[in-house]
């Protein structure tokens, strides 16, 4: 489902964390063995959905015979009150998996929902929304999946798939030119360079930058930077971008706008799972 993501390992580790050494003592004590429940997962908010296949995997891990009917697909925007999936299976297993499944869908749908709002805010500008590496350790692949469900594109997946030269790299290397030259000579095909002043643009391009990140610039500065670049490489606006400022930033003519808060600060969606006796 998600390239590079080990779903089985994620489900196993998450459930092991919740079950601990003693298992689900509440369900074992309260729910009769063999009891069956029918449940419906529903959104109490208007959301963009993400994470349902992962949620289903939690239930299937504990009850291989659970019957699940997925009612919407990831990436769908739905109004409050929408049923997302129905399931029927062993009551103990469903109640044990409930929290892990809900936590996942709430978190990922929250990211997708915030992302969709940012995408809508720049509609028609031509700019493309990017996420960042500001992700919860261990959850990067699923969080970046959620931003895709919201309509964004992924920036770097990690430190391995593009060189990104930032201010500390420049300081240690002795300047933008030497830093970019070293990256190019090391065989870097994608060399992203962060610039926080317009006079850094030409040195970065002359040294071989393939993408410029215009950091913490206002819309007027961004427009000037785009004009200086003149289409030679893609440009990206980054730093402190908010929902109320992103459109003016996008209208500067940049190719991309990256937003760390998509994965760093998105509130969880309000999604519940209600059970009724079979």
TrEMBL record:
Pathway: Cofactor biosynthesis; NAD(+) biosynthesis; nicotinate D-ribonucleotide from quinolinate: step 1/1. Keywords: Glycosyltransferase, Pyridine nucleotide biosynthesis, Transferase. GO terms for cellular component: cytoplasm. The keyword Glycosyltransferase applies. Coiled coil: none annotated. GO terms for biological process: NAD+ biosynthetic process; quinolinate catabolic process. It holds the Pfam family QRPTase_C. Its EC number is 2.4.2.19. It comes from the Bacteria. InterPro entries: Aldolase_TIM, NadC, NadC/ModD, Nicotinate_pribotase-like_C, Quinolinate_PRibosylTase_N_sf, Quinolinate_PRibosylTrfase_C, Quinolinate_PRibosylTrfase_N. One of its GO terms (molecular function) is nicotinate-nucleotide diphosphorylase (carboxylating) activity. Residues 111-274 form the Quinolinate phosphoribosyl transferase C-terminal domain. Gene3D superfamilies: Aldolase class I, Quinolinate phosphoribosyl transferase, N-terminal domain. The keyword Transferase applies. It catalyses: nicotinate beta-D-ribonucleotide + CO2 + diphosphate = quinolinate + 5-phospho-alpha-D-ribose 1-diphosphate + 2 H(+). Residues 24-109 form the Quinolinate phosphoribosyl transferase N-terminal domain. Hexamer formed by 3 homodimers. Involved in the catabolism of quinolinic acid (QA). Belongs to the NadC/ModD family. This is Probable nicotinate-nucleotide pyrophosphorylase [carboxylating].
């Amino acid at each position: 489902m998600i390239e590079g993501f080990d779903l089985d390992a994620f489900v196993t580790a998450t459930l092991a964390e919740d079950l601990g050494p003693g298992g689900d003592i509440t369900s074992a004590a309260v729910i009769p063995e063999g009891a069956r429940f029918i449940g419906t997962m529903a959104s109490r908010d208007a959301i963009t959905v993400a994470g349902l296949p992962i949620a289903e995997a939690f239930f299937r891990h504990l009850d291989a015979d659970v019957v699940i009917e997925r009612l919407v697909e990831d990436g769908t925007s739905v109004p409050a009150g929408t049923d997302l999936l129905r399931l029927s299976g062993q009551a103990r297993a469903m109640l044990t998996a409930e929290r892990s499944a809900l936590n996942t869908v709430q978190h990922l749908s929250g990211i997708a929902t915030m992302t969709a709002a940012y995408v809508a805010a720049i509609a028609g500008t031509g700019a493309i929304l990017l996420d960042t590496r500001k992700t919860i350790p261990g959850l990067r692949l699923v969080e970046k999946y959620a931003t895709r469900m919201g309509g964004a594109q992924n920036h770097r997946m990690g430190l391995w798939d593009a060189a990104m030269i930032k201010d500390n790299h420049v300081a240690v290397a002795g300047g933008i030119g030497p830093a970019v030259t070293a990256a190019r000579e090391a065989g870097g095909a994608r060399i992203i360079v962060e610039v926080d002043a317009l006079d850094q643009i030409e040195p970065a391009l002359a040294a071989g930058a393939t993408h410029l990140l215009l950091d913490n610039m206002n819309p007027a500065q961004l427009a000037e930077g785009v004009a200086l670049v003149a289409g030679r490489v893609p440009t990206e606006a980054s730093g402190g971008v908010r929902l109320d400022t992103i459109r003016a930033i996008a209208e500067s003519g940049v190719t991309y706008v990256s937003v760390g808060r998509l994965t760093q600060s998105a509130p969880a969606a309000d999604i519940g799972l209600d059970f009724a006796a079979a």
